[in-house]
């Protein structure tokens, strides 16, 4: 149970940090592409470790 909670915390922190970096560095079109890539990576992590 603890590893599941820590995985969610890790994913949340990674998403927040990635969003901050993307927001500070990139233009609008690249922001959208990077955000979609981040969502895809987090989905892959979720389905790999949770199922």
Report a brief summary of the structure:
Keywords: Membrane, Transmembrane, Transmembrane helix. This protein has helices at 2-25, 28-50.
Features:
elongated, 2 helices, mainly alpha, 51 residues
Topology:
Elements: H1 2-25, H2 28-50
Please describe what this structure looks like.
This protein is an all-alpha fold and 51 residues long. It is 92% helix and 0% strand. It contains two helices and no strands. The chain has helices at 2-25, 28-50. The longest helix is centred in the N-terminal third of the chain and has 24 residues, at 2-25. The protein is elongated.
Question: Shape from CA axes?
Answer: elongated
Strand % is under 5%
Radius of gyration: 12 Å
Low-pLDDT residue intervals, each spanning 5 or more residues = none
Q: How many distinct beta strands?
A: 0
